[in-house]
Amino acid sequence: MAKRATDDVTTDAVDVYVNPGSEMDFASLAQSPDVADSAEELGDGFVLLDEKDSLIGVDMVITDWRENLGDFGPYYSATAVLSRPVFVNGAHTVKVRINDGGHGFRTAFEDRTRPQDGGKMLRCRNGLRKSEYTNEHGPAVTWYIG
Question: Are 85 and 93 in contact (CB under 8 A)?
Answer without folding.
Answer: yes
